[in-house]
Structure formats: structure tokens, C-alpha cells
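Please go through the sequence and C-alpha cells given here and tell me how the chain folds. Record follows.
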Amino acid sequence: MINEYQIRVQPHVAGNEGALRAFLADEYGFDVRTLTAIRVLKRSIDARQRTIFVNLKVRCYINEQPQQDEFQRTDYPDVTGRPQVIVVGAGPGGLFAALRLIELGLRPIVIERGKDVRERKKDLAQIAKIQQVDSESNYCFGEGGAGAYSDGKLYTRSKKRGSIEKILNVFCQHGASTNILADAHPHIGTDKLPRVIEAMRNTILRCGGEVHFQTKMTRLILGDGCLITDDSCGQGSTVKGVEAISHYPQPNTQHQFLGPVILATGHSARDVYRYLADTGVDLEAKGIAVGVRLEHPSSLIDQIQYHSRQGRGKYLPAAEYSFVTQVDGRGVYSFCMCPGGFIIPAATGPEQIVVNGMSPSNRGGQWSNSGMVVEIRPEDLGNEGLCVANEKLSVHNGMASALRMMQFQEMLERDCWQQGNRKQTAPAQRMADFVNGRLSYDLPRSSYAPGLISSPLHFWLPKGVSHRLQEGFKVFGRQSHGFLTNEAVMIAVETRTSSPVRILRDATSLMHVRLGGLFPCGEGAGYAGGIVSAAVDGERCAEACAQWLSQAINL
């Protein structure tokens, strides 16, 4: 017999299988000796009151054993010799597009400007050790994309565009813990996600696909064999492939890859945006959010969120939080919260400081951080009444370019680099000092490995950002006593929350509005935000590409 139950228990019951078995037997009146297996289907923590509860949906097997895997497997056939599709980018959008193409009987050719996930890790270490950023291999570029070494959170509010359950099951099939199928906020962890990504690549190769690392798309190829170079893409043009330059195994090797193109280059591929804008590919500026990384001792966040001086105790995970408010008509909110995690340097080129957050799977670090960001819309940049653009941005006022939000990001990152002594040393300020407009004369210890330098963020950040953060922090401090404190440090600057550009595509076909055979995909195209939503969009683009290719072949 198999029964499913929705239960609400205290953490020591949820975290101990023996106690959970005893609770279920007592609650539902069966002999505990007949309970042969338990599977947790859903798990969430209710910490709204002083007494903490864990909500569980469990499947109980009475006098029988589970007959299936905890996850649903996907069959990936051999696609050797099948029509090929070029996938540009090996982040979640590109990887899931490639896997879905294989399901549909098409052969993916994946090209990735960065290194494979293991080699990439060596370049990340150099950022902290010698403050050197490799512009092709960093926290944003390389196999796995921006999520591979910056947390691996799988939570998304996007529920309407595809099957989130399918995405989670594919992760499990490639080695992720089945806990992600149950947890309300699933998380693989930066320490485990690289192995999962490597397994996905091996599936692509085993099925007859190709993956080319250190291979950078330089231009799109049109149907007549011409390259898109100088505003040459007209109405009705068709993309038939890409030109690329490879640096492995031989440097500066030119390649052509032919087939329809799924463009999944990520939110930081600014050279791609510039190329598309220069050649007349339809783009538009898109709203983003910018701010800082805010870091507290994880023990303090545990005490606040779990309403206890003892913190989380033995059975609760490192506490999470989520804050949101409105200040002067724009959202101020926490973003990408990393309990028990680290702050990392996420620049992708020279003269930039960018920060992001990550957590290992056990979330056992001594600090917790999140992005604290302010909503910025394209129309804000030239509107002094909204106090988003200060005098340093006046050269951009009135700019009609689709790249103006990207240029705003670049300005902030360059300002931050200059404040940080032109290194990856990040400017920082204690939280309460920032709210009160005071310089911090010293800074607390931090997880940010390249180091911090005290800086008056309240003075040099654009007023529309700093003022809104100050007012937002006051609201969050009233909502959560102890949160607004000088034990917390703000580290600048968080700018890569999402793409500043949208590559325009048809809402139904998912194809570019003027270029046949080009499918802008994922976060870099402006249609996703995070690992899961990018993966979902990758699958959708693969399906749309397969449909278009089928029609093209029949013609």
C-alpha cells in the first residue's frame, strides 16, 4: 500500500527519520514496522512564528518497496548524422537547449567562448590571488555559465513558460541530489553543480553532439553566404550559421558552423550586444536592478529569522530571507540570497568591479549575503526627477541607443573599480553607517577574498540608488529587528542581476523578428532570470527551432 500525507512537524521530527516514522505511525494508526520506506515529496520551513514548523508532503510505502527512481528519466537517442543546430553558449539556456534538441532527434553543435568547467576553476582562483580577470574565463564566461560557480540556486517564480519539474529531473538524472525535487527553494550548491554540468556535456557527446570550448562566435552567416557585418540584415534574411574563432587546441583558428542558431550567450556578453547593435539586429534596452551585496554573520541571520538566540540549532538549515518594498516608485529588494555563503568577484574584463554571491551545498559558511538592489528602467536614465542618473551620467542623457542600460552598468562598474584602488579590492561600508551617511572607519571581516576598502558608498553611488537603498534598509530594519546593523557590510557593486538588453523575437515562433533561423535564448536574450528559467527557455527555443527546421526541410 502506498499513501501520501501532508504533515506539519517540528524540525527535530523532520530531520530525524526515526522520529518521522514514529510520528507517521502514531498520526495515521499503522504499525511502524510495516513502514518500509518514506519519500519526501515537498519540504518547506514555516518560520513566521516563534515556534518553527516544517511542512512536508510524504509518500509512505507500507509492506512494499519503491519500484522506480525518485526522478523521471529522459531518453536521449543517438543523433549522429541528423540535421544540426548551432547552440552559442554553454550556460543553462544552451545546455538545456542542446539536450532538448537531442530528445527531438537533432544534433547540437555547442560553442562556448570560455573553458570547460574544471579548467575554468583555475582562472577563478587567479582573481583572488593576483587580482587578474581573464576576459574569456571568469565567473560569467565558461561551461555552465554564470550559475556554475555562483551558487546554483534553482528557485524561480516563473511558472508559466515550461516544465520546471522537467528541468529539476534532468539535473537529478545528471547527478544532482533528489532533494531539489522536494525543497521549496532547491539548491544544488557551487561545490556540486560543476560535476552535474560535466555529466550533461558527456550526454551531449555520447549522443553524437559536439561541444567546442574556447571558441567564440564572431559573426552570423546569412543564407546567401554573406556575413552580417554592417547593417546588412534585411527583412526576410535567414541565418544559416556562425563564424567563430577558436583558441584551443591552436590559437586564432577560424571556423564556420552551419545550421540554425540558438543564441544563448548570457547577460554579460557585451561584445555580442555591440556586434548585434552595429549590424542592425533588432534590440531594445531592458530594465535591470543595481545595488550592492549585503553581508551579515550567518549566526545573526539565523537568530533573526528563527526568533532564537540559539540560531538554527541542529535540525534547521542556514536561514534565508526575502525583502521587498517600494521607494519613490521603484522596487527595492533582496536578490539571490546566499545563506552560509561567500561574496565573489564577478567582473568580466578590465576596469570593472562586480560582486555576486554563492553558497556551497551545505551552506555552512560563517556569513550570509544577498544582493540588495534598486529597480532601474530605461526611461530613468535621463530623468532627474527620479534621481537615478547623477551628473556623471549626463553624457548619456537622451540616448536612444538600445545599449544605454548596458552603458549605465559599465559606468557603475568603472566607478567602483576606481574607488577600489583600481584593483579587485571592493569598496565597502557598514550598513548602519551607510544609512546614516557616515564613513566607516573600519570594516568587519568578510568572505570577499580579494579584500575590502572603506568607501562612502552613500556619496558616490548614483543618488537614485543610494537614497532608495537607505530608505529600503530602514523599512527592512523595522520589519526584522536586528537586520539593520553595523555588523553587516555593503560591498559594491551588484550590477549583473539580469540582461540590460532584449534581443527581439516573435512571441509565438521564438525566432528573431526579422532573421529566420535565429533563436535568441535565455537570460542573455532578455527572456529569463536565473538557472531554471534560462533552462526552460532553452528547451522552448529548441522546440521552436525543431519546428522551424522541419518546415524548412519540407519546403
Summary: The chain is about 25% helix and 25% strand. The radius of gyration is 24 Å. The CA atoms of residues 434 and 458 lie 6 Å apart.
